[in-house]
């Protein structure tokens, strides 16, 4: 533990001599944008581990200005920094004046690349898995001390640094052991270079979270008031329909009232009754209030920005997931959901959303070597209209098939999606497969590869593993296509990050196959065509990749960009 000037200076000297440093923070909470701070910093340099205490409320601490003195050694562009879920630490460090480093590695990402199905990628769990329970011995000792005072894991700053230091130092030592183990495993899978690329991507995502997203606060408050009013209005309407008050958010109460076995949105929509429509309205207004408007105000910082968290290990396909709040789930078009109208550009900037057009159809056609579909894509025709003509079906059915076929959709699911009989659904599938046989062949080939190898490989080298009890081999085609589309977006984001002026072009949000940018006003005609060029430049793919750009002052008022 480092608490004296003499020890601090000698430790700094040790850090300066190492090219690889392992870092782990202890904090006063989990929310760097809502006031939580760094409590202490553990660092492993070679065989030496150190703990720098700053905000323990009892016992010795270093002066806070020593955090500034430590900063250059935690952000040196010549060094590589390693952490577990390092994005969490980077945000706290940046908020306290430590610049983002140039090179990082994250053992959480390594663990996910090796086993994307694992539900527990916590540091201690991985330590126990690979090195036995002794790897978390210091944690047990610390928990006993916390329990003694009635504290939880989030209260470590309440203990003296002398109690926390062994635990914190064990974390960096364990991270180092995991890195060595994972490096060997990744090299065996030929994914070590990918690991370094995805770790670089983590820096980009960290910066995106740090930027945050600007809110029109007046609009948020206005929309919140409207949602609250509508919830009350529809609630009274339902009470009048039923004769007494019920909770429309309760599935059981709704089922009993309407005499149905389930109260999912799909079931209620098919009922075609005023009562069902009222329940759907109530739920929609409640969702928009509780999922978006209220959290917006609760999580907004002093600059009227929110900072969603993007998980890089939240999906098996490699796609990012979003929380606090989840902006990936905002419906595209709705009279109720006016969430996008609340998201605006900062002063001096304009928003632009650039979206891959029909990415999964194009990627799927590449892997399927489906020449007829490839020819249609290369000709630039409307894919769904052309498909409808080829198969002899209407455009709506063709569109549904185009978006569903790469997921190995069967007659039962197609019948449910289109609200038709299974016989008709089977007829449409047979017609489609006759005209575009490559997709059916890809479905079978992907399954066979997954079964024989235990994994499938995307163009980037990322693997989707099929292990454990009853592996989902039937989903191999969807994992291949979705995963490759996700990798394509990731690589494009990294290129934009590395090649373009970060003051002019800021990535603030990504949703599935799209990126939301803040672009400095006056530069959009220079910047947007360049972004489109980068995103469409995918030499690995035999199908032309196309992106579309929208632009506007808010996310909800965008119009197609003309250039």
Give a structural overview.
The protein has helices spanning 5-16, 65-70, 86-95, 107-114, 123-131, 137-148, 161-188, 192-211, 217-242, 251-258, 265-271, 274-299, 359-368, 371-379, 383-391, 395-404, 411-418, 422-435, 437-453, 476-499, 524-536, and strands at residues 20-27, 38-45, 48-53, 80-83, 103-106, 213-215, 305-306, 309-311, 321-323, 343-344, 349-356, 455-457, 463-465, 505-511, 514-520, 547-552, 559-560. With 563 residues, the chain is an alpha+beta fold. Helix 3 (86-95) packs parallel to helix 8, helix 4 (107-114) crosses helix 7 and helix 6 (137-148) runs antiparallel to helix 7 (161-188). The model has no long low-confidence stretch (mean pLDDT 93). Strand 12 (455-457) and strand 13 (463-465) form a beta hairpin. It has a five-stranded mixed β-sheet with strand order 3-2-1-4-5, sandwiched between helices. It is globular. The chain folds into four domains: 5-207, Nucleotidyltransferase, domain 5 (2-Layer Sandwich), CATH 3.30.420; 214-304, Taq DNA Polymerase, Chain T, domain 4 (Up-down Bundle); 339-357 and 484-560, 2-Layer Sandwich (Alpha-Beta Plaits), CATH 3.30.70.370; 360-482, Orthogonal Bundle (DNA polymerase, domain 1), CATH 1.10.150.
Question: Helices and strands in order, then pairings?
Answer:
Blueprint: H1 5-16, E1 20-27, E2 38-45, E3 48-53, H2 65-70, E4 80-83, H3 86-95, E5 103-106, H4 107-114, H5 123-131, H6 137-148, H7 161-188, H8 192-211, E6 213-215, H9 217-242, H10 251-258, H11 265-271, H12 274-299, E7 305-306, E8 309-311, E9 321-323, E10 343-344, E11 349-356, H13 359-368, H14 371-379, H15 383-391, H16 395-404, H17 411-418, H18 422-435, H19 437-453, E12 455-457, E13 463-465, H20 476-499, E14 505-511, E15 514-520, H21 524-536, E16 547-552, E17 559-560
Parallel strand pairs: 1-4, 4-5
Antiparallel strand pairs: 1-2, 2-3, 6-7, 6-10, 8-9, 11-15, 11-16, 12-13, 14-15, 16-17
């Amino acid at each position: 533990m480092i608490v004296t000037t003499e020890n601090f200076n000698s430790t700094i000297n040790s850090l300066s001599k190492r090219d690889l440093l392992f870092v782990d923070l202890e904090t006063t909470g989990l929310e760097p944008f809502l006031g939580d701070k760094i409590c202490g910093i553990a660092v492993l340099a070679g065989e030496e581990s150190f703990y720098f205490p700053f905000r323990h409320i009892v016992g010795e601490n270093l002066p806070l200005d020593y955090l500034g003195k430590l900063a250059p050694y935690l952000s040196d562009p010549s060094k590589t920094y390693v952490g577990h879920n390092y994005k969490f630490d980077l945000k706290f460090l940046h908020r306290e004046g430590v610049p983002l480093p140039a090179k990082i590695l994250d053992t959480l990402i390594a663990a996910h690349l090796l086993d994307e199905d694992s539900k527990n990628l916590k540091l201690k769990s991985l330590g126990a898995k690979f090195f036995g329970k002794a790897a978390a011995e210091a944690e047990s000792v610390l928990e006993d001390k916390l329990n003694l005072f009635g504290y939880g894991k989030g209260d470590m700053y309440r203990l003296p640094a002398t109690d926390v230091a062994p635990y914190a130092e064990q974390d960096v030592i364990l991270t180092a052991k995991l890195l060595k183990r994972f490096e060997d495993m990744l090299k065996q899978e030929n994914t070590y270079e990918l690991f370094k690329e995805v770790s670089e991507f983590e820096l980009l995502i960290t910066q995106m979270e740090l930027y945050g997203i600007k809110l029109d606060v007046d609009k948020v408050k206005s929309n919140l008031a409207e949602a609250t009013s509508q919830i009350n209005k529809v609630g009274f309407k339902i009470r009048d329909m039923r004769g007494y008050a019920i909770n429309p958010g309760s599935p059981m109460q709704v089922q009993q009232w309407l005499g149905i076995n389930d109260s999912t949105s799909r079931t209620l929509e098919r009922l075609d009754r005023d009562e069902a429509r009222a329940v759907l309205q109530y739920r929609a207004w409640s969702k928009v209030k509780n999922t978006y408007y209220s959290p917006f105000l609760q999580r907004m910082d002093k600059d009227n920005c929110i900072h969603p968290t993007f998980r890089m290990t939240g999906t098996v396909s490699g796609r990012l997931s979003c929380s606090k709040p989840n902006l990936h789930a905002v419906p595209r078009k709705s009279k109720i959901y006016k969430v996008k109208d609340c998201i605006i550009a900062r002063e001096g900037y304009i928003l632009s959303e650039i979206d891959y057009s029909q990415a999964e159809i194009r990627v799927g056609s590449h892997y399927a070597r489906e020449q007829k579909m490839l020819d249609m894509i290369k000709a630039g025709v409307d894919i769904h209209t052309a498909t409808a003509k080829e198969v002899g079906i209407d455009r709506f059915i063709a569109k549904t098939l185009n978006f569903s076929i790469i997921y190995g959709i069967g007659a039962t699911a197609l019948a449910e999606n289109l609200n038709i009989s299974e016989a008709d659904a089977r007829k449409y599938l047979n017609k489609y497969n006759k005209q575009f046989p490559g997709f059916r062949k890809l479905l079978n080939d992907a399954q066979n590869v997954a079964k024989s190898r235990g994994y499938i490989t995307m163009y980037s080298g990322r693997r989707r593993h099929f292990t454990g009890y009853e592996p989902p081999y039937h989903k191999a085609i969807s994992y291949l296509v979705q995963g490759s589309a996700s990798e394509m977006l990731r690589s494009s984001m990294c290129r934009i990050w590395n090649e373009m002026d970060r003051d002019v072009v800021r990535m603030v949000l990504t949703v599935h196959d799209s990126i939301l940018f803040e672009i400095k006003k006056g530069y959009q005609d220079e910047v947007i065509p360049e972004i489109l060029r980068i995103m469409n430049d995918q030499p690995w793919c035999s199908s032309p990749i196309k992106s579309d750009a929208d632009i506007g002052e808010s996310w909800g008022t965008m119009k197609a960009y003309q250039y």
